Amino acid sequence: MTATSVETVGLSQGTWNFDAAHSTVGFTVRHAGISKVRGQFTDVDATLTLGKTLADAAVTATIQANSFNSGDANRDGHVRGADFLEVEEHPTLTFTSTGVSGDEGDFELAGELTIRGISKPVTFKGEFNGVAVDPFGATRAGFEAKTVISRKEFGLTWNAALEAGGVLVSDKVTITLDVAFVKAA
């Protein structure tokens, strides 16, 4: 998106606020080597700031670690605890973008992801889903993106060996975003 004007794709310069009611910040991790556990963080706040070109875009996001939800209360409690997210000591996960590249449809959003106080560079590969004005006059923009991280790089090293070999929780975690932003008035 280096030289693409934001107006070319129907966006406008300024601040866009995260639409939590119409967005999902999810994850997938392989469990026991045979299935995948999926879930999401339900308390997210983010801001998209657009300049003249899409390359000028900036995204900041704060995720409340305690909002981790995989649909299983026991697992959620374990992941929120000291073995994983340690939410009492590290109440938030954050993302701050460092650059955007691509074109009108497909893009890469690079940035710093911080989990448990450890920051690492990540790159989300994504798709711009367009802009729409809703019946109430709000201008909305939609995006999908994903990245794969190593949980060990963020200090999330807990695991259990399986009798048949391998481990209970894979190192690789896929983070998926299906998000909407609303143009600030």
UniProtKB/TrEMBL annotation:
It holds the Pfam family YceI. Signal peptide: none annotated. It comes from the Bacteria. Residues 15-182 form the Lipid/polyisoprenoid-binding YceI-like domain. InterPro entries: Lipid/polyisoprenoid-bd_YceI, TTHA0802/YceI-like_sf. Belongs to the UPF0312 family. This is YceI family protein. It comes from Arthrobacter wenxiniae.
